[in-house]
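note to self: dont lose this again. the chain is below, predicted strucutre after it. 352 aa total, dont forget to put it in the shared folder this time
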Amino acid sequence: MNKEILLQYKKYRTGNRRFILLILLLLLLLCFIALLTGAHRIGSGEMIQLLRGEGMEINRQIAFNLRLPRILAATLTGTLLSLAGVIMQIVLRNPLASPYTLGISNAAAFGAAFSIVFLSANTNVLHSSHWLSSIAPYATTASAFIGSLIGLAIILSIIKLKQASVETIILSGIIINALFGAGIAVVQYLADNAQLASIVFWNFGDLGRSDWHKLLFLAAVTLPALIYFYLKRWDYKALSAGDDYAHSIGVAPQRTRITGMVITALCTAAAVSFFGVIAFVGLVVPHIVRKFTGANEEFLIIGSAVFGGMFLLLCDTVARTVIAPVILPVGILTSFIGVPLFLFLLIRKKTV
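---
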């Protein structure tokens, strides 16, 4: 009996490793396909020439200066959002939790809207100083990031006052969403037509704003967060078994839960502040991966991170090509795909 159980366990681990390797290979294949597809199609033979340092200059500019940054942005952003989503579901022990449960996306959206309406009027003031002119192009991004941090600070203050129960955290997120949603409505009411259009477009979620500076920042956030969460996988496994069990083996549930939420909030803030609100990635991807890996945090965390990058890259590739040369904001497509997919998973009742 013990040998049979051991063999089943080894088979389970081998299957999960193969699944992660498979989606990693699919991610690399999708990256190559995304370089080829778009309004201007590049053949696979031409791409191989470009990789050798040969080929037409226009194809080189399109592939490496336009498409490659967007591909990397989709991969890193999808990884961040999915990683944040799976950690939220683990620490809150709630399969419906996601980064948006914290209200981070609405807080960031309010910060961006505030910048568009009230700081854009002071563009000349920003450019009058050499130091300020260097940060003027990132005013909306910085304002969105600050807004998300304010939302996080409010949630942590509520948790400190009422203790870090799961119910308190979820209710705090609902409150923050409502608060900043009302703030966005006020800012939109005060905006002129051009500013209102900018706010709406920012909220769509668009990876076309990517550049190498943003990619470096996202990579600097993604890699440490992924390493940290993977190293803490055993603590999260203990936490998913209940606070009493976690206490019994030396894991501090409250500190582990709050630290995890802070880091996931910062991950979400980094992605949302650059590219706007991209919905359902952090909610749906962990459910999909859980169907293949089970609830084992060791494979669920890494699997969600890799699958999230692949999922958002797939959505963005479709958004670029479905009605080319018009490029749809990827946030619209993730909502169209995420809503029916999540309803399907919900109806089957195997992930909740």
